[in-house]
Amino acid sequence: MTDSFGENIVHLKNLSKEEYESLFKFSEILNSSTHQDSLIEDAIDIVIKVINAERGLFAKYDETKDEFTNVTGRKISSKSITSLDEFSSGILRKVIKEKKPILYHDVQADPNLSQFQSVQIQKIKSVIGVPIYRDGKIWGVIIADSQLNRKEFTEENLTFLNFFSSLVSLALDRIIQYEELEKENRILINQLQAAEEIPEMIGNSSAMRTLSKLVHKVARTDATVLIIGESGTGKELVARAIHKLSKRKDKPFLAQFCGSIPDSLLESELFGYKKGAFTGANSDKIGLLEAAGEGTFFLDEIGDISMALQAKLLRVLENREIIRLGDVNVRKIEARIIAATNKDLHEMTKEGEFREDLFYRLNVFPIKLPPLRERRNDIPMLAKYFVDKLSDRKITIHPHAIKKMETYYWPGNIRQLINVIQRSLILCDSDKLTEEHIILEDQDETKNFNGTLEEFEIFLLKKRLEQFNGNRTLAAKSLGVSVRWVQLKLKEIGEQI
Ligand SMILES: Nc1ncnc2c1ncn2[C@@H]1O[C@H](COP(=O)(O)OP(=O)(O)OP(=O)(O)O)[C@@H](O)[C@H]1O
Ligand SMILES: [Mg+2]
Q: Which tops the pLDDT comparison, 211 or 180?
């Protein structure tokens, strides 16, 4: 315990009940501050109030650089002061030098102080100042001054300031620790988010990383999600991931495949029915949308749904309610809806095949899954993952086998890759998968091409570049375009081959 603290204790004995109460109030205020800035503001307000000063100033002090930073000041008019020029830095330095509280009744008459230019300019008459310590070093200085009265401040004020500075130091310790923890916490959360992966979802390409971020973000909300992607790209996996990462994770995840199912069957599955609603409806049946409760409901292949059912689904999304077949009671549903399709729903709305209002209701948060051929650099990782998963032997993949897979078009995406790996493992007798084991169904990839014209352009360009070992001149010549066209195209897709 420092000597000054001991001195303060002695002085404390003389304090009245009201003064004790005020001190208690101050310690409460100081302890409620959670950041340095608010502590400083609170401290100055208290000082001004208690010692009845015209102006108060806090200046943070950097001992290693020997300079004042972060100046916060107040005038009685409560106008903020942010520049040291309005006070006397000479007096601040005096506190730093003396390392203890100072009190001057008549600054102008004191030759040591009246020499300071600022004292003259600001016409300072009396001043009181106190250092604030942290870890044995001066962390900042509080001063208050008066331009009116030579005898503005008293010895009691000095005692108060001394004690008060100890309180501020204590609060400061707590706040700095808190701020450090807060910063650490933010860094940890950030790192966690950066490392966020979708459970069971393999891939480290930039497309997959973007996807992962989207999935994590939307999982925290209740928004309806529309997952769009070619067959086998992982739409169901993403839907399950959103559920698993959401607060609904302990509630059911129910799915309904909507493709090529008779309307009446699909309807009764989704909405349920009342006994006697149709022949064979021998008892009431709860629909899946209702059964999902507060969980997630996945409408797979939503693009295949009939116009009549689309109207009913619109009601589900708009009003969150359903009516069982043959029933009159309206029932509320709580489930979060995720839908998926490999069709272009927007295009279907233009053709009048899909309701526009339903499309917009579903398209609240669209997630587009990239086809495997657009993230070929994930293929080695995926291949290894499936080999390890599907085989109980330790099997390595020869680089030529990887190359063969990397250059294939993968119309069936990951599902097809799984099949190819499965087949290769049956064919492989050794501990190494080679090119021969990789049987790709239709090497004439153009036959299976179901992308857009623009995608075909890029596909063909890549093929030709492969064929000519990356020689752009030969590739351009064979395609009947200029080399510049090839260069622009490659730049456009951001790829160097
Ligand atoms: N990134 C991935 N990492 C690992 N496995 C994946 C990945 N993406 C998809 N899969 C696997 O690929 C298979 C197909 O995925 P999924 O059924 O989710 O695709 P889909 O888009 O719903 O296909 P479809 O349109 O044919 O229904 C599943 O076995 C799934 O686990
Ligand atoms: Mg699917």
A: 211
